[in-house]
């Protein structure tokens, strides 16, 4: 969307305005030499050929074929397209002129018509690149506006969720001291809950957090979730390598763990497992999550939550991350590798 003074104009509206102006100018140009019918026929045929060249290259040929290994084929199709349209324009003009608008003692110079039509089609072809770049520009602008709006909405939602956080933390601390006297186990759980809430308020809004902080947050979350499971959870939680100074985007690993408790735990089973291995390599971070497949929830487990995370990874790391989701025998396995 482009802003002109007080008006917001979309790409589609801009195209309609442009084509209207071009059509009127072309019609007026022909009208100086021909009658209104002949000028109309000329204008329609030229606009049609212009649309074929510009949109054919900008929307189909260039984005699909101008790639390594296909560029020669792309240029061959471009030459073929220009030849076909040039021949069609010239022969159509000659046909229309000889059948419907004959002029005594005058014949169209076919060679001049081919040269003129060919040159004008080449100009239209190069203009299609400008049009393609304009499309890309509008697409990037629209995506930037969408992300900006999404970020603003998230910030507003976060502010709404942070109603008097200090009051909540102080209240939890008071409850913790009371519970510590009566039930140390309850006090420990309250402390973990307080840590999780503090993470959401203080750490989650940041662009990056220490991996050690993220790991502690995940550990507290697992401890609280284990309370809801009837039978003991077999937990294999390992952190390998030096992660003290490593920073990651907040809540990057958490969705995998949350996905396990949401879709990968069967409360009737006595052998539920959660494998979470985090390893710091030389220039990358590797994460592996594994759990039993719960057949009734398999479709859900591979659905929206992990797809949203994949979209987020795409925004953060473009194509430099590796996310693999596999099923092996009775296990649902997720591997993630991100650069550091």
- How many structural domains can be distinguished in the coordinates? 3
Largest sheet: 5 strands, mixed
Radius of gyration: 33 Å
Elements, N to C (H/E): EEHHHHHHEHEEHEEHHEE
GO molecular function, one term: phosphorelay sensor kinase activity
Keywords: Membrane, Transmembrane, Transmembrane helix
Protein name: Signal transduction histidine kinase internal region domain-containing protein
Domain Signal transduction histidine kinase internal region: 154-231
What does this structure look like?
- The chain is an alpha+beta fold and 340 residues long.
- The protein has three domains: 158 residues, no CATH class; 44 residues, no CATH class; 132 residues, Histidine kinase-like ATPase, C-terminal domain (Heat Shock Protein 90, 2-Layer Sandwich), CATH 3.30.565.10.
- The chain is built from ten helices and nine strands.
- The chain is elongated.
- The two termini are 36 Å apart.
- One of its GO terms (molecular function) is phosphorelay sensor kinase activity.
- Keywords: Membrane, Transmembrane, Transmembrane helix.
- InterPro entries: Bact_2-comp_sensor_kinase (IPR050640), HATPase_C_sf (IPR036890), Sig_transdc_His_kin_internal (IPR010559).
List the helices and strands and how they pair.
Blueprint lengths: L1 E3 L2 E3 L1 H21 L4 H30 L5 H29 L10 H52 L3 H18 L1 H20 L5 E2 H16 L7 E7 L6 E2 L5 H10 L9 E8 L3 E9 L5 H4 L2 H14 L4 E7 L2 E9 L1
Parallel strand pairs: 4-6
Antiparallel strand pairs: 1-2, 3-5, 6-7, 7-9, 8-9
Helix pairs in contact: 1-2, 2-3, 2-4, 3-4, 5-6, 6-7
